[in-house]
Every structure is written in structure tokens, then in C-alpha cells.
Amino acid sequence: MELQGSVAVVHGAAGALGSAIVRALARDGATVHLTGRTRAPLDLLAAEVGGTAAQVDATDPQAVAAHLDGLGQVDIAVNTVGADHVQGVPLRELSLDDYLQPIVAMATTQFVTATAAARQMASAGRGVIVILSTTAGRVGLPSDGFGPACAAVEAFARQLATEVGPSGVRVVCVRPDAVPGSVAHGSHAAAMWSRAAHARGSTLQEAIDGGLGVPGALLADELTLDAVGDVVAFLASDRARAMTATVTNVSRGALPDL
To answer: Is Transcription one of the keywords (predicted)?
Structure first.
């Protein structure tokens, strides 16, 4: 129980990745507080893991800060909030609004939740902030603004880490590849990937069969939601106490670190 006695808050907790991370943190002993925009699935998951649920808009600075203040102690903060956006449209044909949408959405929610957690954790002299990116931040996608959005939050994580490190707070980023299990979960990714596949003249199932993520993974096993949850739980633990201002590559070797 590496996280026994720790208190964690997970924003976007009822989503595909969020729920896997909640379960991993709870399994390792943390008390987990779940937030999101839709209360019913939060309540179900909170009952499963023995945590609490709250309806919080992760783009609202006042709402996020008020929720964290109400919790008192927060040792771990994770933001898994996703944003539906246009995929499969070449940049030269993409509207400015569609290009900016994922950049603004991801940068906003990560900034709001991470800085709120950082203020509380710096005062306490301890804490871990986990920021979610994807492999899109490091590879050249043929379309949309998702790659720049992921690159932006990774840069933000490094900058925040340099500011709060002297106060005993770690900031780490996790960069998973596409996780096919998100489709079965009912995540917004299913509709988004379906539209992107259609734009390229195929179906979602054909896209899944061909591999949703970066091609050329060194490991044959499919990336799962639970595997990403396990990585986050490790990074949140004291076993990763020397890690900050870094991005953890969870691509099964499809995106080698150079």
C-alpha cells in the first residue's frame, strides 16, 4: 500500500483514463476524491473505491480552488479531463477555431487545476501533481491542433515543476499512446475517433484494427487503461520521489526517447 495515508483528487475522474487512475490510486491505499461535470458516474465510482464525489468544473478557477480548500489535505492531484475536438482534417483546411479548441481546452484545465493544487501543496511542503499528455505531443500528426495542445501542457508541467520544486512539490507528466479501451468505456474518444476515421475513408473498427496510436510499438501487448493507471500510481508514490519536471513515456516503445 504505497499510498497509504495519502489524499488524492482526480479531475475528470469518471472518464476512461480517469476511472482507471482512480482505481489504481485507491488500490494502493490513497483516499481518492473524484470530480467531474456529471455527478451520477462519479457517485458510482466513489462508492466502489470508498472515496467522495463532487461536481466541479475543471476550467473554473474559483470552483476548483473551493473544492481543494474544502478537502484540506491534498497530496496527489491528477487531471485527466479530455476535450472533444476535430480530427482528421488537414491543417490547411482546418478553421482557426477548430485548431485552437483543443489547445485552449487542455491548456486551460491543466493550468487551473495544477496551479490550484500547487498553491495548497507548496504551503504544506509536499505533494505530487500529475499532468496527462499523449504521444501526439512528440510526433507529427497529419491534422488538428491536438499535437500542439499536448506539447503545450508538457511545457507547462516542466515550468511549474521548476517553480514548486523548492517547496517540496513534484510535477510529472504522463504521455500515453492512444488506448483502445477508451472506446469500450464510452469515452468521447469513440465519437471523435469515429469522425476522424470517416474523414480518412475508413471506420472506427478499421482504425482500431490498424492501431490507433503511433505505429511500430516494440511491445506486442495492447496498451490498456489499467497500465496507464499503474504508471500514475507509481509516479504519485515515494518510490518516484526523485522524479519531477519530466515526461514519462507510456507508448510501449512506439515513441523511443532520444
So the answer is: no
Q: Which residues of 75-110 are buried (b: 16+ CB within 10 A; e: fewer)?
A: bbbbbbbbbebbbbbeeeebeeebbbbbbbbbbbbb
pLDDT digits (tens, 9 = 90+) for 104-127: 999 999 999 999 999 999 999 999
Please provide the average confidence, as pLDDT, over all residues in the chain: 89
Strands 7-11 and 31-36: parallel
99: which 3 cell numbers? Answer: 485548431
Q: Which has more confidence, 185 or 103?
A: 103
DSSP at 27: H
Tell me what pLDDT residue 165 has: 98
The DSSP line for 179-238 is: -THHHHHT-HHHHHHHHHHHHTTS-HHHHHHH-SS-S--SS-SPP-HHHHHHHHHHHHSG
Do residues 250 and 135 make contact, with C-beta atoms less than 8 angstroms apart? no
Q: Which helix (H) or strand (E) holds 52?
A: strand 52-55
Calculate the alpha carbon distances from 110 to 219, 221, 257 in Å: 30, 30, 24
Most confident of 55-59, 206-210, 252-256: 55-59
* Every domain of the chain and the residues it spans: 7-247
Single pTM value for the model? 0.91
